[in-house]
Write a structure and sequence with these properties.
Layout lengths: L2 E5 L2 E3 L5 E8 L7 E7 L6 E7 L5 E3 L7 E6 L4 E6 L8 E8 L6 E2 L3 E5 L2
Parallel strand pairs: 2-11
Antiparallel strand pairs: 1-3, 3-8, 4-5, 4-9, 5-6, 7-8, 9-10, 9-11
Amino acid sequence: QVQLVESGGGLVQPGGSLRLSCAASGFSFLGYAVSWYRQAPGKERELVATIGIPSGSTRYADSVKGRFTISRDNFKNAVYLQMNSLKTEDTAVYSCNAARPLRAPYWGQGTQVTVSS
């Protein structure tokens, strides 16, 4: 069964850090572009960061550059999002997406990140 499972969300104070994980089962990330998206209440879904596998090339939204880092562990078939210097505006549901050409993408169920004092 193909599945993406996110974890690591939670409540953190402004300026704090969280590390999100996206674990794949039933398929390999090899050949996919794996992305983190987020959606805050009342807002459109936003692409946060993408990493190519196995290339390791990365891209970031301007709003998170210098604060967030996307990485992967090919052995564990997992992708991570290290989030530092969190702001209240980073509050959202964060979802993992795995995409490759000519195939429907896979989505995880999402994990809530709340930045609040």
